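[agent] plan:
  1. take the single chain provided in the ticket
  2. run structure prediction with default settings
  3. attach structure tokens to the ticket
  4. add a short note for the reviewer (M.T.)
[agent] executing step 1
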Amino acid sequence: MPENIPENQQVIYTQHRADMGTYMALVDADVTVDDGQPDWLSRMLNVMQVRPALGLLGTAVDLSDFIPPAQARQIAPGMPEDVLMSLIKANSPERAQPDAHGADIINPYKPAGRLLLARTETLDKTGALIGNKKLCEAVNNAGYDVGITPKVEHRHLSLLNLFDYPEYDYGQLQRYLGKI
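[agent] step 2 finished; step 3 output follows
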């Protein structure tokens, strides 16, 4: 898209809706997904297919990518505290992701918006909203459940920004998120 604006996702969804089936995957560019058999999408579909009330399914995050604050301070001793804590997502609720090995789903637990499988009928009712809090709330209000599955684990590469993108502008991100 020529401009990064919150409405882009809905524009793309509307443009391609006629070509979609029962489900739609939303995947951010800074996500990698674990290998496994069956593949990650099949594992997510298996969870969704046995839960007709589940409108939105996310995946577990690889917790090993979260940099401990003390280690981050050693890496960047002169960085302002607020910038450092933003870079390592020190206050992310995902740091406290419940351990649910063997479970199909953790619910209620709002999935992050970076890797989602959605029922298209759900998005038809709610819109393809940007922002996981806003989207999950709309999905719940439309009568569907949301959750994450520990059967698929993703890595969120921005968790490593301290190493390879320390100048990342979280102020700009907050301004963008403030628009949604």
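[agent] step 4 note for reviewer: Residues 106 and 148 are 5 Å apart (CA to CA).
[agent] ticket updated
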